[in-house]
């Protein structure tokens, strides 16, 4: 890996699970690994904006402040917590998130939407919650002048409702505002659609929870070290309850696309290697300038080293099948995930396998190892 390799983070969607991403980013910041680019969707867009939209010295403080504000503090028990009581506390936090909303994030929408689902309204009103609290939080914690300075190349995704296509909002192509972040997090039917330039948008995770495709498209010849931070389990045993069914359904929906994207990258680089071997047998003068240019654009010369960080089940937590982990904003759960993110990223940085002299031009390192 060359000294000037580009450092990128790809941040997945996953609601309250995003505290793990915040921990990963915190570890990178504390160990002076400065990102050149952030590709994100949904909760990843929020974490990414808190990173790209602040001066380096303010990033950790604002990441912590966001997750402090959205934490739900359960009833404190007068004895040492057990797996059963911890589960009860998490359930209370989830119930609060569903009925009362999450502080500084979203609140229940007033009106009949809760019981009359056929009532006609606008796309910007058709939701169970309003995310105006999130707008206010982001306007306070994200400096959009810094975000749009392009000091960090920042891209977020959202889904065009009418066209059913993925839209990329990129600070090198346009100014990013709070509405773009709200659109990227507008998961229906919880949150309302967001209008941008006359089009209506929903959460980018509906299309792809992990925007790895953007990385593939823009690689070029630049050596790249990419931290892919996933929040959903891609592999798990069959469920043993209805709760488990709903939980596994979410994991399959949101988690497996990341694995597919990584497999696509493996195939892409395998094809590049084969093409290079074949071209080594072709006389240079057998190709014209246009063909050589096409070959170079297909093969490229840049390395790609991927650090795949995955939020894993915490063995200290009660292993009950839980379909609502993405709305588990219990303060202790968020802290636990943040600490896991810090630990996993710190482990990866300590090992730094991408610095080995015998590394391949393309490699994926998974932490925790699978």
Write the layout of secondary structure elements.
Elements: E1 6-11, H1 19-30, E2 37-40, H2 43-52, H3 59-69, H4 83-99, E3 107-108, E4 129-130, H5 132-141, H6 144-147, E5 153-160, E6 165-170, H7 178-184, E7 194-196, E8 199-203, H8 212-217, E9 224-230, H9 242-279, H10 289-299, E10 304-310, H11 331-351, E11 362-367
Parallel strand pairs: 1-2, 1-9, 2-5, 9-10, 10-11
Antiparallel strand pairs: 3-4, 5-6, 5-8, 7-8
Helix pairs in contact: 1-3, 1-11, 2-3
Description:
The chain is of the alpha/beta class and 370 residues long. It contains 11 helices and 11 strands. The protein has helices at 19-30, 43-52, 59-69, 83-99, 132-141, 144-147, 178-184, 212-217, 242-279, 289-299, 331-351, and strands spanning 6-11, 37-40, 107-108, 129-130, 153-160, 165-170, 194-196, 199-203, 224-230, 304-310, 362-367. The strands form 2 sheets. Strands 1, 2, 5, 6, 7, 8, 9, 10 and 11 form a 9-stranded mixed β-sheet that branches. The chain has a two-stranded antiparallel ribbon with strand order 3-4. Helix 1 (19-30) links the parallel strand 1 (6-11) and strand 2 (37-40). Helix 1 packs antiparallel against helix 3 and helix 1 (19-30) crosses helix 11 (331-351). The chain is globular and about 75 Å long. Mean pLDDT is 87; it is low at 315-319.
